[in-house]
Design a protein that fits this description.
27 strands; homodimer; 32% helix; 499 residues; 4 domains; Rossmann fold; Luciferase, domain 3; globular; 5-stranded mixed β-sheet
Chain lengths: 499, 499
């Protein structure tokens, strides 16, 4: 156990090494690392007294809050598993999660759905209301020692990957989360003093991974319940925030909210976006922001599997692997496909998840070769960089040709009038499937379906061009990716040969 | 095994992800990552055919060479343990190492000592001469697959820590080495393209840790047999080196060698040193170089346990812990001492070694509390930063007072005439021990012993001032620290109460 380092251990070391550093800001709440450590210890003791033990689940049903980080750390201290659930979901979806995880404790913020769920809850779970009841719980625990928990134990569960209509909880150990944090510290060049604004949802790995990397370097996590452009500006100014969870239209919204220069956003060290934005902030020169921000990732690998910033000028727009993983592009028979050919993106290494909660068959299937099968298709370019092609289950078969939605989507999105686009396969009597594009145009754009098809034809082989185009106001999303189930249901898709 | 990542795995991934990147430069030898990977595979096969198996030892007796990295990676591929021995040692010292490790294979460069050792070698080890014989060995192996080796297996042995007159081989696993590399990547802000000049000895963790971090990020390792200022300049210029292994007088020597500006050293991104030096290079702004370079470390923790760069403006001059470890300052009874008090620096976490080779009693002793006991004394300052006090075994007891050599040494070294200094305890009839300073003055300095004692008295409590001062040309060193055994032998030290 001398090599073990859990999230709980990281917190304990910060309490020793950074006694005056602010760990958490959330409304009126400001906690130094020793204060956070003390609250987490009391909370862990209180949860243990309510029956939470090693391997048990604790669920959060609510918006962003410092309580999310406290519950995660208390679960790490106990060896329990914490799940921040997506509070935006329907009552039915949340009921599925509570049934699936059969948690020992649920901490909930009142809403129509959660109040109804709480009223129905019989079973063994303790339901604790966020706010006063939660504070009483924290206050009730003494400061005491806990037995060391191996860092290979799962400590975070994030729902993702709805392969068969229902999502699965990806289990992440302290070891995987800390390794992923290390990779973000490297690529984003995070330093002590880093202050992260948690304005994106903490039930999504995109925000959670930066929250945890900020914890790892002993920085400050600022929480706000949800995205509000004016409040984001206020918090960046007041807390000298280094980074927030912003992209695309969110950046435009923040820039617009600060059009008069009311707030000083110069502490924000972020990706270049527009002249107006770049004037307000400090443009970050770390590999994370230097080229286009991002890479390829999924919850099952702890966040990012590849980083664009590790492949400046590279051919593959997903970049190169995280320094703590290996990536192979495999054929269906498990052999590596040569550079230039499409196969499944497979991974192994320090940041990988521990499987899905209570899905032994699916777990065996996903790791059948000793590598994690992402379910996504990719291509190794001649320079070793990786291109993300699209979800394997959504490959479209038209005649003898394989067509990958992501490639057609990129071509569509390069059209100046297109705000967003997704591609599905619809049944075709002659070709098995045909490509259908669902497109959201920018305001005031007047492009026609024929224009778009012609645009794609100039960029890609003709058989990849859409045969059908539907216009919509917005593409439904699941996290960052199109919600293909919803698109299929709305636009007649289906019959994918890989599914 | 899906979470395992060995050094061999890292190399294999670079071969896939960086097919055109130069991994190694050594004289006329230039290898891309796929070329290095192929050579390592052939070498591993050849070693296996010579009987090297999981857990076996392979020793390098020679100067710096790309063969050192190849042998380490081949051992990682096989699950064997590689030891680059200190070739500067006497025949007796090298014989001790070869006897202690009982290696299955030795690769050696001819010198008086190694030739004599090789002639005596009976036993089971295969002796392969560096150069042609080594190249034949590499050429003899086929490209094949190897079974995966768990990254928790020891893969590198570095001799250190001569507690009882003979050194011990600290065993480091891939997991520990890769975690340490990750921490260096964070603090030094290393990026793809990083080029490290291995001009320091690879048998010492100080050079090896940067060699491995450079491997981790997919950079270029340049090897040179030993430190030669002019050759260092030439290589920095020719290979656009980002960092070399330089400090103190080595920097002065390099600056002097390039006084005429013959070589372009601007690619070197390094710590500020002198106006002349700063003009030649690019002053690095990463946390590693921003304040005074360094921190506290030892081979047993993979290199650096704490980093100054994680504690800018902090009170403790060893800085704050590596983000992947925990540090506690413990009393002899294993309890944590309060901030401000001296205790033993103890550590736990991802970068820690796996114990010393074949020293079960010592290993049990060093990890008796579930933490690694470094054998060094330290103090936690009120701001959470750590001060390194000195080796526990060398604490001087004068009357009732504990005196820590490092503190007195720092005071001596702050005198403008002092080039280097070390402090030992000599027997004293009245006080058990008395403080003796061994001092190397700068050229042309004319300071007297009384001057130096008075200087220390103005900085420290009077009982800490030296009662004896000896002048010498140079302080003998073991790595970066004074060789206290040699100093005691030469200057009458001994009778330490903690030893």
């Amino acid at each position: 156990m001398i090599h073990s380092l859990s999230l709980s251990d990281v917190l304990a070391d910060h309490a020793r090494s950074r006694p005056q550093v602010t760990a958490v800001v959330d409304g009126d709440v400001r906690l130094t690392y020793p204060e956070l450590d003390a609250r987490v210890t009391r909370l862990a003791d209180a949860l243990a007294r309510h029956g939470v033990s090693v391997g048990d689940r604790v669920v959060w049903l609510g918006q962003n809050s410092h309580a999310v980080l406290e519950l995660l750390l208390a679960c790490s201290r106990l060896g329990a598993i914490f799940c921040p659930a997506n509070w935006r979901q329907s009552e039915d979806e949340l009921r599925f999660i509570v049934t699936d995880l059969s948690p020992a404790a649920v901490v909930w913020e009142p809403s129509d759905t959660t109040t109804s769920l709480q009223a129905q809850s019989a079973g063994t779970a303790v339901w604790v209301q966020a706010g006063e009841d939660y504070e009483q719980l924290v206050a009730s625990g003494p400061i005491r020692e806990f037995p060391q928990v191996a860092d290979t134990e799962p400590t975070l569960a994030l729902y993702t990957a709805a392969f068969e209509g229902r999502p699965n909880a990806a289990l992440l150990s302290s070891s995987a989360l800390i390794a992923h944090s290390a990779s973000l510290l490297v690529v984003r060049q995070m330093e002590p003093g880093f202050t992260f604004l948690n304005n994106g949802p903490l039930f999504h790995v995109g925000t959670m991974m930066f929250c945890l990397a900020t914890l790892q370097i002993g920085g400050t996590n600022v929480f706000t319940p949800a995205f509000d452009p004016e409040e984001v500006c206020r918090l960046i100014d007041a807390e000298r925030v280094t980074q927030a969870f912003l992209f695309g239209q969110m950046i435009d919204a923040v820039a617009k909210a600060n059009a008069g220069g009311k707030y000083d956003l110069s502490s924000l060290s972020f990706v270049s976006h527009s002249a107006e934005w770049d004037d307000m902030i400090t443009v970050d020169d770390s590999p994370w922001c230097r080229s286009k921000m991002g890479g390829y990732g999924q919850t099952e690998v702890g966040g990012m599997l590849t980083f664009l910033g590790l492949a400046e000028g590279g051919a593959g727009f997903a970049g190169r692997p995280n320094p703590l993983v290996q990536v192979r592009i495999l054929a269906p028979d498990g052999t590596e496909v040569p550079a230039g050919e499409v196969g499944e993106i497979c991974a192994r290494g320090k940041t990988l998840f521990s499987g899905y909660f209570a899905r032994p068959d699916l777990n065996a299937e996903k790791s059948r070769t000793g590598w994690h099968h992402t379910g996504d298709l990719g291509r190794r370019e001649p320079d070793g960089t990786i291109t993300f092609i699209g979800p394997k289950l959504r490959m479209i078969k038209s005649g003898a040709e394989n067509i990958y939605p992501a490639e057609v989507e990129r071509a569509l999105k390069s059209h100046p009038s297109v705000a967003d686009a997704a591609v599905i396969g619809v049944p075709d009597p002659d070709w098995h499937q045909a490509v259908k594009a669902v497109v959201a145009l920018k305001p005031d754009a007047t492009t026609t379906a024929d224009d778009l098809v012609e645009h794609v034809r100039t960029l890609l082989a003709s058989y990849k061009k859409p045969r059908h185009v539907a216009f919509t106001d917005a593409i439904p999303k699941r996290g960052f990716t199109p919600d293909y189930d919803a698109l299929d249901a709305a636009h007649g898709g289906g019959n994918y040969p890989g599914a």
